[in-house]
Automatic annotation (TrEMBL):
Protein name per its UniProtKB record: Major facilitator superfamily (MFS) profile domain-containing protein
Lineage: Eukaryota, Metazoa, Chordata, Craniata, Vertebrata
Family to which this protein belongs: Belongs to the major facilitator superfamily.
Record's GO cellular component terms: neuron projection; synaptic vesicle membrane
GO biological process: chemical synaptic transmission; neurotransmitter transport
Region (Disordered): 37-82
Domain of life from the UniProt record: Eukaryota
Amino acid sequence: MGMQKTNDDTSLKFYTIFLRFAESQIKSEIMADPYQNSYHHGDPDGYGTYGEGGQDGYGYQTDYPPQEEDAASDVTEGHDEDDQMYEGEYQGIPHPDEIKAARRAARTKARTAVDAMSEQEELAEQYEDIIEDCGHGRFQWSLFMVLGLALMADSVECFVVAFALPSAEKDMCLSNAEKGMLGLIVFLGMMFGAFIWGGMADKVGRRKCLIIALSINCIAAFLSSFAQGYGSFIFFRLFSGIGIGGSVPIVYSYFSEFLQMDKRGEHLSWLCMFWMIGGIYASFIAWGIIPRYGWGFSMGTEFQFHSWRVFVLVCALPAIAALIGLMFMPESPRFLLEHAKHDEAWMILKQVHDTNWRAKGEPERVFTVSQIKTPKTQEDEFFEIQSSTGTAFQRWVVRTVTLVKLVRMCLCDCVLRVQVCLPMFVMLCFSYYGLAVWFPDMIKHLQYEEYESKVKVFHGEKVERFHFNFSLENQVHKGGEYINDKFVNIEMKSVKFESSLFEDCYFEDIKSSDTFFENCTIRSTVFYNTDLYEERFIDCRMENTSFFHTKKGCHLNFAEENDVLIYLVSFLGSLAVLPGNIISALFMDKIGRIRMIGGSMLISAGCTFFLFMSFSQAAIIAWQCLFCGVSVAAWNGIEVITVELYPASKRATAFGLLNATCKLAAILGSSIFASFVGITKVVPILLSCAALVCGGLLALKLPETREKVLQ
């Protein structure tokens, strides 16, 4: 036993000597790195003068500040004076600092192997090294929560109109065309918003544009909840969509620029989970608020604030919370470096570094970056000239015109760049949003068929001197005669009178829904305080008939009209993506973005064939959950690869352009798929399957970006 212990001690000392030798080699390589030579020891500020220095202008101090005698070095962290090893070394696990140093040394060798690197490539390599030194911790998680709320607001926006429409159509008495336009206007607004804010974010700033976009969304959502007319309501919903349309391209571009390469795929995938949370949030508050018709107030007949308006108001809370959180978040330092704002970028990076290491219990760690050399662009010089010439108004006009030109140039340049991802985006959006509309419409169609099968038909009935004081529902009266009858204080739901005679009848306090009179003769009849207006009488002959105090709008009891099934379907569809979100986050960096996207889209294509077996409402809900759970991995992969394919100067613009195209494909898909509801299931299923297969195969042709430094 004594001999074995001696051998173990000898092995331990030998291994420790080997580690120290490796440490000295790593330090010698770092000292030989050209970036080290750019540090100016004489700089009074401690971090040098920007724009000067060595070959890359990116300086690290050669060592941390002098430590106490019993302090451990970074490479041998976990070793005390008795040469004890940290726990992972017993299992042969390298120390994290060793891994970081080895990865940086490999990138340094790769840089030296290249004859000439562009300034953008140099900045990308430098920035990656800085973000690695800053670590991943409290700052990124705080930003994660704030940007997650903004992404959640985007998800809620997609559900607002769908949930509020069944009640809003009765409150404002909307026709089918008006209902269709209301659902369309939200996607149109989001399409224009993505296009506008994506381009602005690359020139004005991620944080600033996101704050403006969310402010527009909050204000427009608030005003839309009080809008009484259809025109004003659709106008405010359009601007609400324009505001929230900028959230997706800005959020992913913004967050990715605070993540190091080995954590980018995973944490961007976790961020996608907030879209699911937004769907669950919208479903819950819709179920809790809208059926409660008493949650509201009215001021006469001209101003009504029913429960669905309360729901629209509450849906703005995630955007408001994100807006408040953004006030405490800094601008993206990568954006600032692209625009030669070195001092601001350095201060933000130091803030990230200090926040993370202080939270990890290592406040003694010093931010060792001395310089970041960034080329000054012509547009920055032009802006500086403008800031010192002319009046304030002239400078504002020139800067605004210049900004519009720069955004336009960037958009034109990105039109060619986005062709790599564009087909994949279009295919996935077309099939996903098309089926997202098709699923609930098919459920409504099955409900309607079941309701129609229970209709009661009355032929040639003759009713005289009768007082109707009970509600009429799901009935068809053909060739009837109603003489000297009274219809007082009743509700009519899905009632139709065909080729009938009404003579000396009296209608008072009638609330109706889907009720019509067709080819009827109405003589000496009075309609008092009813909602039976001209559109309800189709090809009818009126003789000595009077209408008094006809009510505007639709006044059927909302509490009986709201079907909670629509909330349940949306809730289950949103919850079903949870497993897909978790799997994609855990394996995004392991199997790669391309395999994740291609595999998810191809498996989703196979799932669409199960829709041929959707003969009941329960079956449709089950296949919807399966499809959403599988396809979400493709969505997460697309979001990740999009921010990695494009450089920082065009990242948000390219993402916004792709997202705008996505909304256009969503409009086409939902319109085409909805037109086949009740006609055939074959066309929607084959269209979605073909689109997903093509998109999945195209995705496999994309370049893998898993180990690519963010440009």
